[in-house]
């Protein structure tokens, strides 16, 4: 797909210039905002394809910006913040952020997160009934999943978790989001159940559960389905 228009929301001019220069060097189109008010205006009028968002803005907390943008748009939002606590990550992701990058960050990592987001955007736009990631295949219409051409014998809950992760490939899903989608609640017992089901699901799809290929754990936060590279097929 063509390089997207990226909205950079950052009040620190040095960091903003670093991100802008990086985007420009790699042929991304970009616009910038230094305040929350400006960010909301740019997001609503310029229709960016991806938003890079700092949480610590002078006039508004970044989580509030996420909530406001989510009232009218599903544009991917990658948070870039110095806040490194799990509670901050969970708050941003639960508000609707797609990814969370902690400062200080490397240019290579920022570009990698952008590539992952672009791949997820491409998968979402295809709206295919068949999902393929490496040797994993999911036939949504038939409600079946396959690995290496062999049908996986999944429980209904395992299939729902796998489908949810696949439909959000590349995106970190918090424990709260997953349990709400799967069980309709966010009880602590549901989080414990999720860990159990995730362990059994991994045994069925991962060749090495100690070094997972498909499902990545974000300790204390949630899970993400990894986009398998072609060379790994």
UniProtKB/TrEMBL annotation:
Superkingdom of source: Bacteria
Pfam families reported for this sequence: Response_reg, Trans_reg_C
Compartment(s) of residence: Cytoplasm
Modified-residue entries (4-aspartylphosphate), positions: 54
Segments of the chain annotated as binding DNA: 128-227
Record GO terms (molecular function): cis-regulatory region sequence-specific DNA binding; identical protein binding; phosphorelay response regulator activity
Domain Response regulatory: 5-118
The entry's keywords: Cytoplasm, DNA-binding, Phosphoprotein, Transcription, Transcription regulation, Two-component regulatory system
First-listed, main subcellular location of the protein, grouped into a coarse class: cytoplasm
Protein name: Two-component system, OmpR family, KDP operon response regulator KdpE
């Amino acid at each position: 797909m063509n390089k997207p228009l990226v909205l950079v929301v950052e009040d620190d001019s040095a960091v903003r210039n670093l991100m802008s220069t990086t985007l420009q060097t790699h042929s991304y189109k970009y616009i910038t905002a230094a305040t929350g008010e400006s960010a909301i205006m740019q997001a609503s009028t310029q229709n960016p394809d991806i938003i890079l968002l700092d949480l610590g803005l002078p006039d508004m907390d970044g989580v509030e910006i996420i909530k406001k943008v989510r009232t009218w748009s599903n544009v991917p939002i990658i948070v870039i913040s110095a806040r490194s606590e799990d509670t901050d990550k969970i708050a941003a992701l639960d508000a609707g952020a797609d990814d969370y990058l902690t400062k200080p960050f490397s240019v290579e990592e920022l570009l990698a997160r952008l590539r992952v987001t672009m791949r997820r955007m491409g998968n979402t736009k295809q709206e295919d009934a068949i999902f393929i990631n490496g040797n994993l295949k999911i036939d949504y219409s038939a409600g079946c999943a396959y690995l290496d051409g062999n049908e996986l014998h999944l429980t209904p809950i395992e299939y729902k978790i796998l489908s949810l992760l696949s439909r959000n490939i590349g995106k970190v899903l918090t424990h709260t989001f997953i349990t709400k989608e799967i069980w309709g609640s966010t009880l602590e017992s549901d989080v414990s159940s999720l860990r159990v089901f995730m362990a059994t699901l991994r045994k069925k799809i991962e060749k090495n559960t100690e070094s997972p290929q498909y499902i990545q754990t974000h300790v204390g936060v949630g899970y993400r389905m990894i986009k398998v590279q072609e060379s790994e097929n």
